[in-house]
Amino acid sequence: MSQIQMIQDMDRQGNTISAIAEATGHDRKTVRKILDKTDFNQEMPTKKGCPGGLLEPYIQQIDELIDEQKKLNRKQRFTATRMWEFLFVDCCHVELEHAYHTIRRYMKAKHQQELRSNHEKGALKLVWHPGEAQCDFGEAHFLIEGKLEKLYFLVLSFPFSNRVFCQLFKGETAECVCEGLLAIFNYIGGIPVLIIFDNATGVGRRIGDKVRQCQMFARFQLHHRFQVRFCNPQSGNEKGNVEAAVKYVRSHLFVPTVCIPAGGIVRFNAYPLMEKSGNLRMEVEHYQKGELVKNLFETDRKALLPLPHTPFVVVRYDTFTTDSYGMVKTNSATHSYLLGPRYANRTILCGFGAWDIKFYTPEGGFIHEYPRQFGGSTTESVDMLISLDALKYKPNAWMNSQVREAMEPGAFRNYMDHADANARKRGLYLLNETAQEFGFNVAALAMDNTWHGERENSAADVKTYARRLVSFPIGMSSNTTGVSLEPFNALMAQGGNR
């Protein structure tokens, strides 16, 4: 601008174009062009349209390739580098040898245009009424018995008051959702009138205008009489409150990594997690309304539906057929549970809960209960009492049995390895009888510590030792006074020499 101003000033002073050009160092044509310009309005800084010129003949081909790739996985689509290689190398368009940056700019512009067209409707600001809630899952890692394990935490948020509640689970199934919601309902003393769910939760799914709910959650909803709405695809604003709550809970309650104490996740959910999550924002002002969350939640509470008189039992029943080992395989044979040979090749009724899985005969007789396994990794749940009960009828299978593998090397295991069939059978009967009364681990330890060489133990000796282990475990000191008993060792030695 200063150069143009100087040229105009020199022109007004009567200098010729040649003199101005010589003084400014510009060409005469440039000086004349500047003096002839009369419009100095700023042009609108709009972006250029699709590149033409060299790329123009190939734009249709590029568009067709991009549209065709949309049917595939997102990670299997054309990048700008691969598009340039395909056109230049594979299709032999040698004129595009130096057109990589042009292709990249075009593909970027096309991608941004598609994003704008997908979001051209924008997000609608929603109004949330008292008693309405949103539900979603989050993920976090926890220390459980010294091992790092990924768990899923269910969050129920109330957008009107911005209060949140949280519960931990090992999966995201409908049983976990119902168990978590049921605990929260009982804690707050009521039921939300409406709950918004993500389209990817285990309770149901929206496909177009149709919503398909799983039977378990449908019964839960009918029992508690609340309304359900599933988010539209790509409409995160419809449950934005709970998505923000998931991040808030994770950063405020689970950072640094939380160690689940003795008693397990169920006890941790009841206390302190329920209380801690519910109190997270109680003394905080609402981000828009300027009132305390605890005061706004009282309005939420007044709008809640009453709890039903009959409590809901979170369980889903299904039937399976065991194999020749008496093993039940669930979740597309991912998780297996041993019921024993006596239930081999039979139809079994299974009751799936959020924490456990119970097995019944077709007539309803209880068989066994296992902790429920989750995830895509193959698991095999075996109760040593079931294996031991079956092994006592087949003593010759001892060497390759799961019972032997579960026992530490010791006197009893060594005796059983070298015993004949009858001696093994007696030993297994005694081990089974003790295990049924005191548990497998206690029985195995009692058998090992009371066994001496080739002499068989009596049931009285083994059970007495087992009873002592249960009431007073090894490692506990009976000297509660703190007085050293070391001086008495000399007296004991003297007495032994007489």
Q: How is this structure best described in words?
A:
There is one protein chain. The chain has 498 residues and is α/β, with parallel strands linked by helices. The chain has five domains: 2-36; 53-114; 132-302, Nucleotidyltransferase, domain 5; 316-382, SH3 type barrels (Roll), CATH 2.30.30; 386-471, no CATH class. Helices cover 41% and strands 17% of the residues. It has 18 helices and 15 strands. A hairpin with a 2-residue loop joins strand 1 (132-144) and strand 2 (147-158). The mean pLDDT is 88.
In short:
This protein is an alpha/beta fold.
What's the level 1 CATH class of the largest domain?
Alpha Beta
SSE class:
alpha/beta
Number of helices: 18
Report the helical percentage.
40-55%
Biggest sheet overview = 6 strands, mixed
CATH superfamily of the largest domain: Ribonuclease H-like superfamily/Ribonuclease H
Please report the distance between the alpha carbons of the first and last residues. 120 Å
E-strand count: 15
Under CATH, the topology of the largest domain can be stated as Nucleotidyltransferase, domain 5
GO biological process, one term: DNA integration
GO molecular function: nucleic acid binding
Protein name: Transposase
Organism: Sphaerochaeta pleomorpha (strain ATCC BAA-1885 / DSM 22778 / Grapes)
Attribute tags:
Nucleotidyltransferase, domain 5, 5 domains, nucleic acid binding, RNaseH_sf, alpha/beta, Transposase, 18 helices, RNaseH-like_sf, Integrase_cat-core, 498 residues
Give the topology:
Blueprint lengths: L1 H11 L4 H8 L3 H9 L22 H11 L10 H11 L9 H19 L13 E13 L2 E12 L4 E7 L4 H15 L5 E4 L6 E4 L2 E4 L1 H10 L2 E4 L9 H14 L4 E3 L3 H15 L14 H10 L13 E6 L5 E4 L4 E4 L8 E6 L3 E5 L5 E6 L7 E3 L2 H8 L10 H5 L4 H8 L2 H18 L1 H11 L8 H13 L16 H10 L1
Parallel strand pairs: 1-4, 1-8, 4-7, 11-15
Antiparallel strand pairs: 1-2, 2-3, 5-6, 9-12, 10-11, 12-13, 13-14
Helix pairs in contact: 2-3, 5-6, 12-15, 15-16, 16-17
